[in-house]
Amino acid sequence: MRIISPGMFRIMFGVHAFIPFMMLMHRWLPGFIYGALGYRVFSFLFNWSDGRWDRGLRNRMFQFAPVYVSAESMRWWLGRECFASQKCILATREEGRREEEEDEEDEAGLLEYFDHGKAHPSEEHEARSESQQWKGRKAWYDEHVPPLALWVAGSDELVDGRRLLRRFERGREPHVKVVHAKIIEEYEHLDVIWAMDMIEKVGREVRQVLWKTAPPEAKELCRVPEGCESIDYSCIESGLASLEAS
């Protein structure tokens, strides 16, 4: 898709629905055949596999995955001058590379300065705070962003979750509060919802994080979810406090 020019893409796929023939076949083909074909189309487009899925459910899950999608939207995701090349929806590849270099240089300078005992520890905190304020000038999120909990697929070739976490850790988003972050190395793009072990690696933690971060007044009105009776709140409270302090 990245080889095709925007004009050629529009000639091949139009400017309305992306491959609307899929929906015509949805009415004609048996469900298991359509699901099997749907998986292969999406696997080719987005380069993921079904290594951790229940093979007996895969075709059923893809019976309704192909739906009407804007051809221009697909061109933006897959086209050569868009997301497939820039790898980000809020910055260009060049901007991202420049920020990575700035972060590495800044961190190396701070470590070299403070490791040699040239300043008092309080000065280190002040210097890092000033550095984060400077980095936060081009933040993507403002004060309205809600607290975030992230489960990152480590083998995801479509979304770079590690890069987003690094952006948060390096102070480029001063308004963001990360209440939970976990990288699952072997997971691919859809494994966080379809992997056979996603309940153990993702689902239960989602339940616990939601209950931990719920407002006290909401907890008084709701029944304690099963599995959340013995949650240790000290870790989440200390994490939130440190984030607020930063």
Tell me about this structure.
It contains 13 helices and two strands; from the N terminus they run ααααααααβαβαααα. It is mainly alpha-helical and 246 residues long. Helix 3 (31-46) crosses helix 4 (55-61). It is globular, with a radius of gyration of 23 Å. The two termini are 43 Å apart.
Helix and strand arrangement:
Layout: H1 6-13, H2 21-28, H3 31-46, H4 55-61, H5 71-78, H6 83-86, H7 93-115, H8 121-135, E1 148-153, H9 161-169, E2 178-184, H10 191-194, H11 198-212, H12 216-221, H13 233-245
Parallel strand pairs: 1-2
Helix pairs in contact: 3-4
Count of extended strands? 2
Which consecutive residue ranges, at least 5 long each, have pLDDT under 50? 242-246
Oligomer: single chain
Q: Roughly how much helix do the residues carry, as a percent range?
A: 55-70%
On the 0-100 scale, what is the average pLDDT? 80
Which strand-content bin applies to the residues?
5-15%
Strand order of the largest sheet: 1-2
Strand count, sense and barrel status of the largest sheet are: 2 strands, parallel
| Distance N to C terminus | 43 Å
Approximate shape = globular
Helix-strand category = mainly alpha
Estimated radius of gyration: 23 Å
Q: What are the secondary-structure elements, in order, as H or E? A: HHHHHHHHEHEHHHH
Continuous helix count: 13
